[in-house]
Amino acid sequence: MTVRLVLASSSPRRRDLLSRIGAEPARVASPDIDETPHPRELPRDYALRLAVEKARAVPRGDDEIVIAGDTTIAVGRRILPPATDEAVQRRLLALLSGRRHHALSAICVIDAGGRERTRLADTIVAFKPLSPAEIDAYVACGEGLGKAGGYAIQGRAEAFVRSLSGSHSGVIGLPLFEARALLKAAGLPLA
Questions:
Q1: 157 three-state secondary structure
Q2: Would the pTM count as exceeding 0.90?
Q3: Per-residue pLDDT for 1 more than 70?
Q4: What is the SS3 assignment for 110?
């Protein structure tokens, strides 16, 4: 039986990242889930829960493998929201300025038999101290709106990164090392 890959995501970045490992989705479906953190939910648990819920929310045929992911930005035990507007984005960037944070990128793969597999990549990102003018210029470019933590590392914000320990692709939205391992284990033929 030939298996088909289904990407449970509305993120074009995840589709682009999958193509880097030769995993082209046969279809893309946007999962509709509530992404509100539970009371006292830790960031790691939150990211894994969302990845699993997203994968489960997309109908899967008998010949399909579903992959879903979630990237959560956290400072300590605090889950940072997506930047819903410029004021939120400014607050997020001011919080991240000059400090380390975690980019937690969780993946859930459901194979053709219904078995779920998960992985989580924890990447530590350290931002340089950001001046108010740098924050204003970044907010004005618009690329961080809607993004977890208020920034897109694959864009202009990469210049803010003093150091990174972990998965660069995970910070973008899908840790490729972990994704490839899970997809191969689920039976997707990858080189």
A1: helix
A2: yes
A3: no
A4: strand
